Structures are given as structure tokens and as C-alpha cells.
Please model this.
Amino acid sequence: MITMIGLFSHRKLLEVTITCCCLHAAHAQVRISEVMYHPASENPAEEYVELQNVTATNLNLAGWQFTKGIAFTFSNSVPLAPGGRIVVVADTNAFATKYPTVTNYIGNWTGVLNNSDETIRLEDNLGNLVDEVFCADEGDYATRVRGAQDYNH
Model:
């Protein structure tokens, strides 16, 4: 299943960080939970993708890889605790400079995220789809209908 994420083009944004909270694969052990794909600095070295373990067990990400959007393989043992998060970054030096208090990151990936739309795909060590998201800054997205499910927000 693909998550659709988008921002409307009539809004001027200085930086695009998307928190992925929509439709994920029901069986996913790890979710792509946040994507920074258009830094205000225009420096692609500041891009990142955050992953979250949504299970109640420890996971080892060794051999897992991003196969679409960016290229990165978790080559070493990378433990991820239940509910834990890890940030996969384009450039570890740029990330450490911009976010000095964040310590749960790994990098460096190959490629650059598209600043207008991108599909990002994560596969496990056997090549099975774990999660995939599509991020865009414009497009046709679901129409919001006010009602009981909306809680008047």
C-alpha cells in the first residue's frame, strides 16, 4: 500500500518536512514516519527520512534498504527498539551540524530527493516491501468533509 502525502501549491513553504501518518501497509514492522525533502537552505545534504518501529519487539535492520527515491543499505547491525526511531540522512556531517541534539541517525545515502514529488520505498533484507510513501507539494488529494468523524476541526 502507498501512503499519499501532499501540500497544496498555493501555500508558500520555506521548508518541506512531511510527517507520514496516513495509510501504511497493515503488516508493516517499520514505517516511514517523516521525510525532509526540500530544506529551506536548498542544500540536499540536509535531507532525511525517519523510520519508526511500530512493533512490540526489537528489530535488526541489517540488510534492509531503500530501493526507490534514495539508495541506502543498512550494512551493519542496526537495532531498533519497540517504538524506536532512527533517522536516515543524506549527509551525516550536514545533519549533525543542523541538528546537534539528535543522536539516533545513520547515513550517508546516494541520490537526492525530488523537491516537488518523490516515492520512497523501504525493503527488508529479503527484498519484501516494508513501507512506501509518495510525497508531493501539489496534486488532487481527498476532499475534507466536515462531520462526526471530523470532531469539528
